[in-house]
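Quick one, probably user error.
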């Protein structure tokens, strides 16, 4: 986890601030200001900033901070060592020696977690286990308790979420705030509101003088007290919430900390929503390398599982192999503490992988027979049953309908799909069935914040089981129709200036969009498919979600093909042709060229017959790309020119951009770099006019590639960096990888081989993850070239052999030839010239066959290297002279050729390059040398 040291630093700094606050009886702000002044700052803003997870950038700040904390906080040397390490302070030993030279042992640090030990009231239940994590929540609650305006603070959350432990820990961290005591009042077993007064009185050691007016006696007793009352498990006593209002009205120095599954709805009530413990997101773990999994063990949810598992089985060990499964368990329960503890009990019988699989199948495994656990907490079923029974029937019905949503929803969707209202949603939030979150606007994506509601996944499964099947079908039909309309509203925006905002909005709802599409395909709902198909395709295509995009359209095509056979009147040609074409696009991007061609040729006659010219343009452009990839340059040129003719006739600028880009690629492969610049530039201007950021990013990258080939490195770097920024904004991972690839090319040619290798590896990882096989093969070859240049010949051979294998699978001829040339260079370096000759012969034959002039020139340089190794200097010199003076020679090849020319005693005349055609040269080489 990249930010783990900073998070550890923030936690330790927070402990230090609270420790000093306790020892010196100061407010948090004063402590922060004092530390800031000691560092030469203008106050405590830097300390506050660092406590949020941003470690100091300057070593001198870390050192001064350590000195002040050691002086005021009385910390041990061991604690200070961890503090310095978390701040990545270099060689802390010397500073520690100065701080602790001849000093007597000091007290250990007191954090909010540990402060409870200083003054634990007699009526507090002893925690059976250590308190873990939740530094941010604990700190926030403590700060609210410090605010004298906060008289009633309610911690709201579902049963088992950890409200009670959090309330106890937060209250006891600041006992000096309450000189008359902190009192814990358990209400779970109070069966009726009439027993509340006696329960409170018993907790605070108040004996009523007589049975008359006990309420007045309680209020009178509290009137001049400065204390904290913790009212635990209040949700079933809501009719007595007014008692709390009376207490804070009559006793101005009393504060009340409440834990409840439902907010009290009192004037002046502050509410703190308690959620699950910290757990790594699925997006984070999807990208993890095997080495990075160990960092996941630092998350508090994983630590809770480990602690609980060791209680269940003393010999349990969190092995590296088990960590991903434990993380998966914590993700499945969204960091729900009770669920984690219940899951951990099964380590005595099951492996962590088996526990995760059981939870995915059925959450009923989350139960225990612990005798000291309240009955309502012995299983999640019991927890949810208890909460469910507190809901009125109409809210139960709404909650059932809300279970069709996947990972949250907005208010408008709930109204349309679940047929509910804002007051009902608010009530479900108040009762902890829904969680409300605010997604803040991001520059260029949204103008305003978005409010979303979420139903905890385990709770969703519980409630979904109560939904009648007939009702479920009707609700899911509404769900699919709503999100089809949601997509359709953003169709145009995905190709224009609002592209970023539209991508962000669809991305936020992608789980619901997937579910809606899957339901529509399963049901054969043609109208929903019709509305969703174009925007859904644009989203997946722009984002580069290749595998998933391929799968959803392949599944749709299979379903529609069956329907065309069984119910031919229900499927019109337009939908059928579009689904085939979109599946074909993703097949092309995954390198399945023959599959893609077959699908496109099946759909093209449909759109020609219907005279749907924009769809025809889409297919012609795609067929042109496939032909280009397969080395059929004449066919590719024809398809693109046909597309441009239609676009010009119907003024379809968006279609022109794709055709111009492919024509630019063809020009690059001929070595016609000025023509390529002109074509890319024309496409770029059209993309900019349309506000199509995706096309703009691609064409900037293409222009950067041309500048790199021409040796214009500053321009190339600027163009590719601009491209990378745009790709990152729209989260197009394929585009990001290709920008990294081009930046790696530039780094390598300007002498930074290590940076080139790093960029190639990053790009390769992305391509492997998204299934972009063309990118995988290209980057393997690039890494092979870097390894060859560094003298790591076996690594180079392995990379290039893998690259050739992938190129052959997808049929990309240029790639095959390029990787064969690198393999030849490796064999020459190892003295294995026999294999090198075979590689060069095949590469030259491919280059001539597809008329790829720059490719042929590169391979000829490889041939010259082979000839020099064999002592044939004259033949090598003649070839090098030819390529050096050829107008299509790029700067990278020119540099390589010039380097080799130093080993040639006689340079051939420059006119050689102009006197012979490339075909003539290759024919002579194949006949006389190879």
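Nope, works fine. Designed sequence:
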């Amino acid at each position: 986890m990249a930010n783990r040291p900073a998070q550890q630093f923030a936690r330790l700094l927070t402990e230090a601030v609270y420790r000093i606050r306790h020892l010196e009886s100061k407010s948090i702000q004063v402590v922060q200001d004092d530390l800031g002044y000691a560092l030469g700052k203008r106050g405590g803003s830097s300390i506050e900033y660092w406590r949020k997870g941003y470690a100091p950038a300057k070593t001198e700040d870390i050192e001064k901070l350590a000195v002040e904390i050691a002086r005021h906080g009385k910390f041990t040397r061991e604690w200070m060592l961890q503090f310095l390490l978390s701040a990545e302070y270099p060689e802390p030993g010397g500073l520690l020696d100065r701080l602790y030279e001849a000093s007597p042992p000091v007290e250990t640090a007191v954090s909010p977690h540990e402060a409870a030990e200083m003054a634990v009231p007699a009526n507090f239940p002893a925690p059976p286990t250590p308190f873990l994590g939740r530094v941010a929540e604990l700190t926030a609650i403590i700060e609210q308790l410090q605010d004298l305006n906060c008289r009633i603070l309610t911690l709201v959350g579902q049963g088992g979420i950890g409200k009670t432990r959090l309330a106890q820990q937060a209250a006891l961290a600041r006992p000096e705030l309450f000189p008359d005591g902190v009192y814990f009042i358990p209400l779970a077993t109070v069966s009726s509101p009439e027993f509340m007064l006696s329960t409170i009185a018993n907790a605070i050691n108040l004996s009523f003088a007589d049975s008359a007016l006990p309420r007045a006696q309680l209020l009178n007793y509290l009137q001049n007290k400065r204390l904290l009352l913790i009212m635990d498990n209040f949700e079933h006593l809501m009719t007595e919430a007014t008692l709390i209002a009376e207490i804070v009205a009559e006793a101005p120095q009393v504060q009340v900390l409440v834990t409840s599954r439902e907010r009290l709805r009192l004037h002046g009530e502050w509410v703190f929503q308690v959620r699950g413990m910290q757990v790594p997101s699925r997006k984070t773990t999807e990208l993890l390398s095997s080495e990075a999994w160990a960092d996941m063990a630092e998350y508090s949810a994983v630590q809770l599982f480990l602690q609980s598992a060791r209680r269940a089985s003393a010999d349990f060990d969190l092995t590296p192999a088990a960590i991903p499964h434990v993380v998966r368990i914590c993700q499945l329960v969204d960091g729900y503490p009770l669920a984690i503890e219940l899951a951990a009990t099964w380590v005595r019988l099951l492996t962590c992988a088996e526990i995760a699989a059981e939870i995915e199948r059925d959450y009923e495994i989350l139960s225990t027979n612990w005798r000291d656990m309240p009955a309502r907490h012995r299983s999640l079923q019991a927890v949810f049953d208890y909460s469910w029974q507190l809901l009125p029937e109409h809210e139960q019905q709404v909650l059932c309908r809300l279970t069709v949503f996947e990972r949250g929803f907005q208010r408008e969707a709930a109204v349309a799909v679940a047929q509910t209202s804002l007051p009902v949603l608010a009530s479900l939030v108040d009762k902890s069935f829904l969680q409300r979150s605010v997604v803040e606007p991001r520059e260029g994506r949204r103008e305003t914040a978005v409010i979303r509601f979420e139903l905890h996944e385990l709770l969703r499964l519980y409630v979904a089981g109560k939904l009648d099947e007939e009702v479920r079908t009707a609700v899911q039909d509404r769900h699919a129709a709503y999100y089809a309309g949601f997509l359709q509203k953003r169709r145009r925006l995905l190709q224009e200036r609002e592209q970023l905002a539209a991508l962000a909005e669809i991305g936020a709802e992608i789980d619901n969009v997937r579910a809606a599409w899957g339901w529509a395909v399963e049901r054969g709902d043609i109208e929903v498919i019709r509305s969703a198909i174009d925007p859904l395709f644009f989203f997946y295509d722009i984002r580069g979600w290749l595998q998933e995009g391929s799968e959803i359209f392949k599944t749709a095509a299979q379903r529609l093909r069956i329907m065309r056979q069984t119910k031919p009147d229900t499927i019109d040609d337009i939908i059928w042709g579009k689904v085939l074409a979109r599946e074909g696009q993703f097949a092309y991007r995954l390198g399945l060229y023959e599959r893609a061609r077959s699908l496109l040729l099946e759909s093209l006659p449909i759109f020609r017959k219907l005279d749907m010219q924009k769809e025809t343009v889409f297919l012609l452009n795609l067929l042109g790309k496939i032909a280009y990839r397969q080395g059929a340059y004449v066919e590719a040129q024809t398809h693109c020119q046909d597309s441009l003719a239609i676009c010009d006739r119907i003024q379809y600028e968006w279609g022109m951009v794709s055709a111009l880009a492919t024509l630019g690629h063809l020009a690059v492969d001929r070595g016609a770099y000025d023509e390529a610049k002109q074509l890319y530039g024309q496409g770029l201007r059209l993309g900019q006019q349309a506000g199509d950021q995706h096309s703009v990013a691609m064409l900037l990258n293409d222009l950067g590639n041309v500048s790199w080939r021409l040796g214009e490195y500053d321009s190339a770097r600027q163009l590719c960096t601009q491209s990378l920024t745009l790709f990152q904004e729209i989260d197009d991972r394929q585009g990001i990888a290709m920008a990294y690839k081009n930046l790696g090319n530039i780094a390598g040619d300007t002498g930074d081989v290590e940076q080139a290798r790093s960029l190639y590896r990053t790009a390769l990882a992305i391509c492997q993850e998204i299934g972009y096989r063309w990118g995988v093969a290209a980057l393997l070859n690039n890494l092979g070239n870097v390894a060859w240049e560094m003298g790591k010949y076996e690594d180079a051979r392995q990379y290039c052999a893998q690259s050739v294998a992938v190129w052959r699978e997808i049929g990309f001829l240029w790639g095959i030839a390029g990787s064969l040339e690198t393999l030849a260079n490796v064999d020459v370096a190892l003295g294995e010239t026999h294999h090198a000759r075979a590689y060069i012969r095949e590469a030259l034959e491919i280059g001539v066959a597809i008329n790829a002039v720059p490719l042929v020139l590169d391979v000829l340089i490889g041939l010259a290297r082979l000839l020099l190794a064999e002592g044939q200097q004259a033949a090598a010199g003649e070839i090098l002279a030819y390529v050096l003076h050829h107008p299509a020679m790029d700067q990278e090849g020119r540099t390589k050729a010039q380097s080799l020319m130093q080993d040639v005693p006689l340079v051939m005349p420059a006119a050689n390059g102009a006197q012979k055609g490339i075909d003539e040269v290759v024919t002579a080489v194949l006949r006389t040398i190879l």
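The longest helix spans residues 4-24.
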